[in-house]
Specification:
Radius of gyration: 47 Å
GO biological process, one term: positive regulation of ERK1 and ERK2 cascade
CATH architecture of the largest domain: Sandwich
GO molecular function: MHC class II protein binding; protein tyrosine kinase binding
Number of helices: 3
Helix content: 10-25%
Shape: rod-shaped
CATH topology of the largest domain: Immunoglobulin-like
CATH superfamily of the largest domain: Immunoglobulins
Strand content: 35-45%
Largest sheet: 8 strands, mixed
CATH class of the largest domain: Mainly Beta
Structural class: alpha+beta
Keywords: Membrane, Signal, Transmembrane, Transmembrane helix
Number of strands: 31
Number of domains: 5
Protein name: Ig-like domain-containing protein
Pfam families: V-set
Length: about 475
């Protein structure tokens, strides 16, 4: 490498009439254009000679129009040469050399020599090939991954900047170019944040070169980060996601509910009764998601799923946030009800919104926004306010979830409803008393009927009974006359 730099300096010093020394960066696999321009006026086309220092002729064209390719550039001519010098640009004084599908070994010093009769013009171009590689090409979550930017030849004194997904990337450790290997290396632990397009930007003597590579990290892709919050309403069903990369088959998968306390090394606790460690509809080996068929307040908290992949244990934690609506009837303001949206963790909540849900005759559902805020006060409770009231809660990225409350028709909530309810109650009580009296009368009539049946079976006894009855009536009359 030092020899090449020395030769470059010597050649630059010795060549007379040199027009320029240009730095060109090209990404490996792309097309590189090595500029060579001249404003010299001539009635005859010049002879053009492109050569690489210490490597001989690359391409040349005689004044007669004959073209020649260097030995290392003329291989596989049946597939077409990787180099060309477009004749259509010669009239404009442009004799640039185009190299397709540039390779690492193409880097080096090139010379463009133009011979206009006795006038000779020569310029130098320094072509540097940039290549970005990721090792391993598809890293496993948690393992070391290296992203390397290699420039051939390496530009001593150049600055290197890394960009990840169009944003500057600042590594944990300072980037120090390895001068011996002529490359810059970033080494990190593989996480989802490292997935995407890596771009190496090299600046040298006012010239910038770029090259990119894509990194894809294998592991648990959903949720992509720890402590992701999952929201569910009390009484509803919820899925706790744990999805691995679709080409991974985890073994020894385990679900745990973590006890409250330290987040560094939390202890596992008991899973809820309605917890199921597998989804009935999932048929993919990489989907380890779990579900709760009916969420209760006690189910809120942190959960952890884990599985072994290629001898490494991968884990992901998430938090189940439970939502409910508390309702209360105001004692001070007659006929009003207060609904309050409650969540077991409100750290990511930015706003609340209340909707009244209605249904038409065909069962179609519609929702009308009523107000924003955590608390809703329903006053005087007209009949149309009965039914479903839904609370939507929002985060920075939009809706996080909702919870619904059913308001039942209740007596005493308003004066109008109270009088109507009292009237209905009085009517029911009156009908009940009348029915009771009728039942008593029927029972007495039935008893008298049965008694007469028994008496009629014995005529002598009947005569005695009538005689006694007549005597009692006579005595009563006599007492009244006295």
């Amino acid at each position: 490498m030092l020899l090449e730099c020395f030769m470059f300096g010597v050649i630059t010093f010795l060549i007379t009439g040199a027009q320029s020394q240009v730095e060109i960066f090209a990404e490996e696999g792309s097309e590189a254009v090595l500029p060579c321009n001249s404003r010299a006026e001539s009635f005859y086309p010049p002879a053009i000679i492109w050569s690489k220092v210490n490597k001989g002729t690359v391409w040349r064209k005689e004044r007669s129009g004959l073209q020649y390719w260097g030995a290392s550039w003329s291989q596989k001519r049946s597939q077409g040469s990787r180099i060309q010098c477009p004749h259509s640009q010669f009239e404009k004084g442009d004799y640039s050399l185009e190299i397709r599908d540039v390779r690492e070994e193409d880097g080096g010093i090139y010379s463009c020599r133009l011979e206009f009769g006795t006038q000779i013009l020569e310029s130098l171009v320094y072509l540097r090939i940039i290549k970005v590689t990721v090792s391993p090409s598809v890293p496993i979550w948690g393992r070391d991954v290296s992203v390397t930017c290699k420039v051939s030849p390496w530009p001593y004194g150049a600055s290197v900047q890394w960009i990840l997904n169009n944003s500057p990337f600042v590594p944990k450790n300072e980037i120090t170019p390895n001068l011996e290997d002529r490359k810059s290396v970033v080494t990190e632990k593989a996480t989802a944040k490292l997935s995407g397009e890596w771009t190496c930007v090299v600046n040298f003597k006012g010239t910038e070169g770029r090259a990119s590579a894509t990194a894809s990290v294998k592991g648990i892709v959903q949720p992509s980060v720890d402590n992701t919050k999952v929201y569910a309403a009390v009484g509803s069903a919820v899925t706790l996601p744990c999805v691995f990369s679709n080409d991974l088959t985890p073994s020894s998968s385990v679900w745990e509910k973590l006890k409250p306390g330290s987040s560094i090394k939390p202890a596992p606790g008991l899973l809820p009764p309605s917890f199921s460690s597998s989804l009935p509809y999932s048929k993919f080996p990489w989907d380890m998601s779990a579900s709760l068929t009916e969420v209760s307040l006690e189910d809120g908290g942190r959960y952890r799923c884990s599985g072994n992949v290629e001898g490494q244990k991968l884990t992901r934690t998430m938090q189940l946030v439970v939502a409910k609506i508390d309702s209360s009837i105001s004692s001070k303001k007659k006929g009003s009800m207060t609904l309050k949206c409650q969540l077991s963790d409100e750290s990511e909540i930015t706003d609340y919104e209340w909707f009244r849900v209605t249904y038409d005759l065909n069962g179609n559902k519609s929702a009308e926004s009523i107000q924003k805020g955590k608390t809703l006060i329903i006053s005087e409770m007209p009949e149309e306010n009965n039914g479903e009231w839904s609370c939507l809660f929002y985060g920075k990225e939009g809706i996080l979830g909702n919870v619904t409350h059913h308001v039942q028709l209740m007596s005493g909530l308003s004066g109008k409803k109270s009088s109507g309810s009292s009237y209905n109650t009085a009517a029911v009580i009156g009908l009940s008393l009348l029915l009771l009296v009728l039942l008593l009368i029927l029972a007495q009539m039935y008893k008298n009927h049965q008694r007469r049946k028994r008496i009629f079976q014995y005529p002598a006894l009947e005569t005695i009974v009538h005689t006694n009855s007549n005597e009692r009536e006579e005595r009563e009359r006599s007492r009244v006359k006295k």
